Model the fold of this input.
Amino acid sequence: MNARSDIEAAVRAAAPHALVETVRDALVTAYDARSVQLLLADYGMTVLKTVGPASGDERTLSMNNSPQGRAFGSQRPHEEPAGSGDQVDHHFPVTVRGERLGVLSVRLPAVWSTPQTMEELAHVADLLGHEIIVAERDTDHYQRARRITRLTLAAEMQWQLLPARSFTAAEYAIGAQLEPAYAIHGDNFDWSADGDQLTVSVTNGMGEGIQASLLTNLAVNALRNARRAGIGIADQAALADQALYDQHRGSAHVSTLLLRFDLATGAVGAVDAGSPQLWRLRGRTVSRVDLDAQLPLGMFEESQYVVQNLQVLPGDRLLLVSDGVYDAVSPRGEAYVERGLARVILATRLLPAASVPGAVLRELADYRDAETLDDALVVCVDWFGRQGSGG
Done:
């Protein structure tokens, strides 16, 4: 057996909490590695935090001012000389289908820093990412490592409900982020990728704290239940609306924006049931996409919803934003939607979809009143279209 097969076998057989230690032992044996570290991105996407067997072994590094952060941001391996001249530090992005988890850092003797070894270590980073996703069903080890402070209970409930924060396919790329990451309550995003279509939703439960989180949880699971039954987005909205009304009798509601993309043609069906807004960047032109406003979910009994049809073109970028973004105001009372939103969408046009939400939310944090506590959510969808088709 070769080194790659040995490492794969060892990692797949490792206990869920022991993946890093298993990779470390394997790389020491195969490549004489002098140190091996896994760093995971925190919930706020501001730092990389070392995964260690005990809390005393953990440290945090900036995503903006560290070699590991540069590897994470560029999604390309990065290397630098180590303390002594005969060793080199190599940093490899740990990413699963576009979901940026963190960075694998390996210190090697210079003699081992060859293109073939780099290819092998990039494969190890990819393998480790997939195994972490599976292991998180059975251990809290990696979720604990992503936290630089304690999550509120409402935030814990919301993060457990979310899909990945980014995803890529041949036809599109998605990125999303929520703030405040450690204290969110009502905002949520969801998506489902299938062979011929993509469904994306943004929801915002009314209220604050645990009550808002419980309301959003009911709405998202009702939408998922309908979606997994193969039902169209208008009926998904109607069934979720009924579930919420049956539970709350109109005293609580959820704002929702549902989009369904046909991957072959770029045709998009949209249901606007509340406050989330849809913005489009086409070329260098930013505009809000006007949708037919319909009732939020759960407001009235047996509401009916209608799909509005849109078309996306290769190169289009769509942003779904919650009211915590477009309704934010500066200390002087200027609405962000009037002064800043279109400008930041244009300014971030060269960033990949996974990086756009964080950039928008950082700019928003500098703009809005520091006393503002509302959730803020951004979902970015870059549309590439299917090769050889009109979409």
Observations:
- The longest helix spans residues 115-135.
- The mean pLDDT is 92.
